[in-house]
Amino acid sequence: MRHSDPEGLYRALGVSPAANTDEIKNAYRRLAKETHPDTGSGASDFQFHKIYNAYKILSDNAARARYDRRFTLEDAEHSWLGIHPVECSRCGKVTAQPRVLTFERIYSLLVFSFRRPVTGIFCTRCAQTVAVRASFSTSIFGWWAVPSAPFLTLRAIARNAMGGVRDEEEEQELLWRNSRAFAAQGNRKLGYALATKLTEAADPDIAEGARELVHDMETRGANPRKIRLKDPWRIKPLAAMIHLTLAAVLPVGIGGVVLQAMKTVSEPAAGTRELASPVPPVETTATIHDEFETTATAARRCWKEPENGEVLYRINPRVAPGHEIAILNNTRSAAIVKVRSAFSKRLIAAVYMYPHASAALGGIPDGYYMLQYAFGSTLTGDCLSFVETKVAWQFPGTENLRSIATGEGPRSLQYSLIAEPAATQAAEVPPLIFSQN
Length: 437
Ligand SMILES: [Zn+2]
Prior knowledge:
rod-shaped, alpha+beta, 15 helices, 3 domains, binds zinc ion
């Protein structure tokens, strides 16, 4: 403990700053008798009041403790030499204006939400990084419980966007530590500037210490109008936008999917109605399957019925002028037609067709190809195959479409799909082979 007597209170009572309460009381009683104006000892009122004032402060434990903490700047700076400035708990660098921050992370599952906050002493840079990471994982894992997870998720991201939840008391202690450490290290301006922020601190000890440091510095010529700290913690609109974007990605995405799905259901497309009566073998299986459909399998379904002639897949961009394959679907069922490389069997392109409709796949580059087609109703999640591909055929032989390179120009092939292909016209392919990409 430091024993200083800046205003001479101990000296006035003739005791040492280490004196106990009794010593102070006894000293006061003795001096009071000697100096009381009524005793006619010749002591002035001033002397008596000085002693009375000293006793009033030193006999009150709280007031004495406050007085004991007063010091001269030199005393103080000397005693502060052992204090080290605060380091960021993440990057380890000294940070003049650290903050003690908590960033929220929410993880949710079904009916449970877990709050996994990240707390630390941060420099501005690290705070931003940690905040964005916390919002990112929350934006992915936070939503998935009922009923309160979405609310918790949004609140967490909003708090992160606003710079996290501050522990101001802890923060003031760190600032006070920095203020003293910088002052002792000779960086008095910084020490002074930090102290000016703490004169109204919640902790009375810090506030008083800071006021004394400020007062001492100003009596030595520190000018409060010339020494100002920049606030590195101003909320940057761009950084806040990142959090808002993270919060919006999933809901907007899901909302879009739901809207599209509702639109598709409510729009009575000509082809969609007829899909309810595809070729008999497919229909039977699909109907039974649909009645017991669970949400899990529904999620794997293609969410948007393609248009007639819509290209479902194309390995390369169209080439111009490319070859064309024109198809007429002469059946009562929707069809997918796939063009594969004749040798590697790799899928080159796929097109979706309504019943009794025609379509063309253009822009096909030179190559050797084979053609497969299948009938069905519901499409799988990748919209590339039917959930039940019971009927899949392959046109016999290989098509040589290599005339662009030789200068003969693009070719156009015509195919017709019929419900019962003659054995000479097509060969059945196993559904698995048809579905492979
Ligand atoms: Zn840092």
